[in-house]
Amino acid sequence: MDSQTHKAHRPAQSGAKAEKKKASKGKGKEKQHGFNEKAFAPKSGRRADRQGRRTAERDQTRLHVPLVDRTPDDQPPPVIVAVVGPPGVGKTTLMKSLIRRYTKQTLNHIQGPVTVVSGKKKRITFIECNNDLNSMIDVGKIADLVLLMIDASYGFEMETFEFLNILQSHGFPKVIGVLTHLDLIKKAATLKDTKKTLKKRFWTEIYQGAKLFYLSGILNGRYPDAEILNLSRFISVMKFRPLVFRNTHPYMLADRFEDLTSREEVRQSKGKCDRTVTVYGYLRGTNYRLGTKVHVPGVGDLAVKSVQILGDPCPLPDAESEKRRKLSEKKKLLIHAPMSDVGGVIYDKDAVYINVPGNFTKGGIENPGEGEQMVLDLQDVRSTLEDQMTKSQIRLFGSSSQPLSVEAGPSTLRSQGDSDGENDEDEGYGDDDEEDDEDDSEDEAGLDSDDEAFSDFGEEDEMDASDRGRSAPRNVQRSMWSLSSQDRKRGDVEYADSDSDLGGEDDDDDPGPSRRFVRFDGDEEVDVQSDDDVEEDGPDDQDVPRWKVNLTGKAQAAFEDTTRSRRRRDWVKLIYNSTAPPETILGNGGAAEMSSSQGPSMDDDDFFTVAKHAPAKTEEVLDQTKEPVDPEELKEWENEELLDSIRNLFITGSSSQPTEGVDEYGEPYEDEEGQEEASGSGGEDEDEGDEGGDKPSISKDAAALAAKKAELKRKFDEQYDEPDSAKADFYTETKEAMARQQQLNRAEFEGVDPEARALIEGYRPGSYIRMELTNVPAEMVENFDPSYPIVVGGLLPAEERFGYVQVRIKRHRWFPKTLKTNDPLIFSLGWRRFQTVPIYSLDDHSIRMRMLKYTPEHMHCYATFYGPAALPNTGFCAFNALGRDTPGFRVSATGVVLDIDRSTRIVKKLKLTGVPFKIFKNTAFIKDMFSTALEVAKFEGANIRTVSGIRGQVKKALPKPDGAFRAAFEDKILMSDIVFLRAWYSIQPRKFYNPVTSLLLSDKERWEGMRLTGQVRREQGLKTPTDVNSIYKPVERPGRRFNPLRVPKKLQAALPYASKPKIMKPQHRQTYMQKRAVVLEPEEKKALALLQQVRALRKDQVARRREKQGERRAAHRKKVEKEEAKKSEKDKEKRKEYMRAAGMKSKREADASEGGRGNKRRRT
């Protein structure tokens, strides 16, 4: 054991611990061991300049246009993380792994959105995107972060590129790439090359340096914990920049969907009636105002009936519960996934639904969910609430030895009790949810005290029948004012199963004033007088003190006085949430208050009372800029003493009497002596009577002036001392201005209750709301599939109308076919997906919009179609078909919106052709171009031309034949010429709008819109009908016959010999030379052949000689050119030298003429 050696301790060289140790050791030695700027300064100034430019450019590229983030900082909505990829790539496995990492729960069957708490101030909503183009479009519009999954063993697939193009059109969110199935690649070298290739292609599509994660394999049905931990940390710290479209539109990803239509109505209509549904989810984007229409992609535009803010099902931890740096384990277990049915609990506004699958016993479940635990707790209850009430004991005093037991005697309730309860609900004073929750909490408390025993009855009815709104934020108080006076005095409460079981005052078996029987334990019943008896016997009974008489009435009167004095009007509720007329709100408010305060104090016995007269109705003062002037108040200004006291405050007044505390220039004294004098004079004025009343206002003005001077001095000092520090760049100034505006908005609504705030500015993003939609198609409910996302997008007022939209469009370079005008195209624009018929056009030199039959290659063009209006610069993408069976790349075009209801006309070229039927020099009669004289009259003066290029003009119509006209040309045309007129015909897009209603189908991918005629014929097996005139035929053109040139004999005689035609008449008979036959002898033939051979040799010799001569000439030419080039170079140098000398000479002469100024001293 003695020979055992231990490893020497090696201190950490890097990391947080090493940095901390270095900092503690080397305090004050930063200059010695720190970064020395001089050692690393660039040697050349040019390099330093380049480095500074690069730094500035890098800083500028980092900056974006500042955008106001509408998301509230205190309660932001959960971040939407979409998991996207082709089928079989591992999307569900990744979601399960991430959810287990955040919540320590394993979800077996994930459907719909899943919300988890990822940090103390952050929540995440995970959603899996199907391999369906409609789902990709919807998810791309709402996702804040996209986890793009790629199968590394296969490579990029077409769906990945389609989704990236959809993202580019609708505002690019953050994208993180995730490579899976890396375990299928066995060789390390191949794995390395694959990673490098895929990363390079991924960076090409996103941006250089985009984050790419690698998931190596699967362990126990999940990805490795270390890799998931790395990915989850990166997700948790990501910051998101607000996108323009989402920053101007409210939207919601629905995580719950319920049908509220009555079952009877569904049964009568056989399931075909329109439904009323509710969707639940977190509001995102900007504020949603009630009354705004919404669009559900895949369904259509829907009207919102009501919106309610619900409790947050996945709340963020508050500051009191989370004082540590890390998130507690209890908060980590929070998960909200209603469509996946986690825990079996579904919360509604007025109920909690518990889903317990199958039958189970108490001990049969090891780890029960939240809902199952509730059911188990309910099974443990041994007694009902009524039994607990009967067993409860009440002691009058803490020192009482025997408790009181209360028995229910004959009782009556006020007949107006039910109606008062209804009024409470109508007036909006109390909310059902709050009352139910409070009742439950009080019932659980056991109702031990006397006050709690009476707390089941409703709140105080402070509000009258007129709709005045709530006067102050709600204070939950349980009192007995809703009971009749007898019941309040009796203190006994009857419990009933329904309102009809409670006895009214007009019942026949009313026994009269109620008695209360109190039994002490072990004794007989004792009859205790009620308060009515005490009040009746009070004056006669000498034993009762006077202050005890009618205590109830005195307390009630005192309470009414205090509430009437404290009550203030809530104008927001009166204006936004009231149906009362303005006269009632403005004029009769006081009378309404008085009547409301008198209402609860009326006893049954004092039914007939003298009503107090309401004050006379004051003059109605409407909204106006000028305050109403009272003539009596103006008489005050006739007092001369008052005018003299304020005369020196004006410019026209005398400055002989300066104001106290202010010098003669209206500024406060700054020296101490002046302050003492001011205080001394103020003290003297206190003894004087009326003059001391103006002193507070004067001192207030002096303080304001002093503050203003100090602020101006501070600004001047900043600019004078450090002028550069006062100047901030545009980016910083804009961000500071936005922060100040947000602070002002936050401070403006700080004291407003949530209901009034929602009425004014709308429902804020981040709140969990319940939205009720009406007139929803029945197919949406019947064919509901939770695996397809339901997005509820709010529409701006301008987006609800329809019109002609002009866009700039470009055919996608990967789409194989050219787009044709009037072919149907599916647009994804804003929240909507719809099919329409566009017309493509091009700006023709800013003169006209000329229609294009096809989209141009690799170039933008304009498109005009009929559809819903969208804001300019809104991006869109277009598709020819959305089905999965469509071959090739499905994104056919992308672009942006330019204008709405553009007034420019789209024109197309129209050529009208005609032929001449009579020609007179430069005039011709044209037919077959028009059909009537009226058409000719419309085109009088129009330019026409022939195919050969002769220009002309339409003159007048001819009486016969119809449509013929006289035209003048610049030259004589031929009968064979074709005359055409080029005109422009105005066209308008067809009003066709077909929304893509994919969510209404049972098979969501089988939506079909309008099809082309050829596609319909191909699917139905029909042949294309042939038109006889459209069939191509061989063109047979007869040869043209030209007349011979005839020159008159007189002209021939006058012409000179050279110009006379040398045309001989053809001879019909053969001449003698043609007739005779020449027969050569054999010797003659040989001689003739020899001559021909000699001539051929000579001709060849001459040709070779010429070729040689040409070669010699070319060589000589090259030699001459080379000599000429050398000579020109020498001449150029001589010329330069001469010009340099001439320039120097002229410069010296110019300097000499200026007097020798600026000359350098020559060395001697």
Overall description:
The chain is an alpha+beta fold and 1164 residues long. Strand 21 and strand 22 form a beta hairpin.
Protein topology:
Layout: H1 16-25, H2 30-33, H3 45-62, E1 79-84, H4 91-103, E2 114-119, E3 122-128, H5 133-142, E4 145-151, H6 158-169, E5 174-180, H7 188-205, E6 212-214, H8 225-236, H9 244-248, E7 251-253, E8 256-259, H10 263-268, E9 275-284, E10 294-296, E11 300-309, H11 329-332, E12 335-336, E13 345-347, E14 352-354, H12 370-380, H13 385-391, E15 404-406, H14 417-427, H15 432-444, H16 450-453, H17 485-490, E16 516-520, E17 525-528, H18 531-537, H19 551-566, H20 571-576, H21 582-586, H22 589-598, H23 631-634, H24 640-645, H25 672-687, H26 695-721, H27 723-726, H28 730-748, H29 754-761, E18 768-776, H30 778-782, E19 791-794, E20 802-811, E21 825-829, E22 832-836, E23 839-844, E24 848-852, E25 861-868, E26 875-879, E27 891-900, E28 906-920, E29 923-927, H31 933-938, E30 943-946, E31 951-957, E32 965-969, E33 979-987, E34 993-995, H32 1013-1020, H33 1049-1054, H34 1072-1075, H35 1082-1153
Parallel strand pairs: 1-3, 1-4, 4-5, 5-6, 24-28
Antiparallel strand pairs: 2-3, 2-12, 7-9, 7-19, 8-9, 9-18, 10-11, 10-19, 11-18, 13-14, 15-16, 16-17, 20-25, 20-27, 21-22, 21-26, 22-34, 23-24, 23-25, 26-27, 28-29, 28-33, 29-32, 30-31, 30-33, 31-32
Helix pairs in contact: 4-8, 5-6
